[in-house]
Design goal:
Length: 60
């Protein structure tokens, strides 16, 4: 993988326009001050957490 691909992978997503904001929920709303939350989707429980670098990671 090239260095440019690594940079692109770590780049933040573009800010959505007003027409697409209806489905956007801030991480602060979901986490409510916690470092991680559990999310149940069907019968599977996922863990959403903030990494030491301030990024989000979702794991089974």
């Amino acid at each position: 993988m090239s260095e440019q691909n690594n940079l692109d992978h770590d780049a933040p997503a573009p800010v959505p326009n007003e027409d697409s904001l209806a489905g956007v929920i801030s991480s602060e709303t979901i986490l409510k001050g916690n470092q991680e939350v559990l999310i149940q989707h069907g019968e599977i429980v996922y863990r959403l957490r903030i990494t030491q670098n301030g990024k989000l990671i979702l794991c089974k």
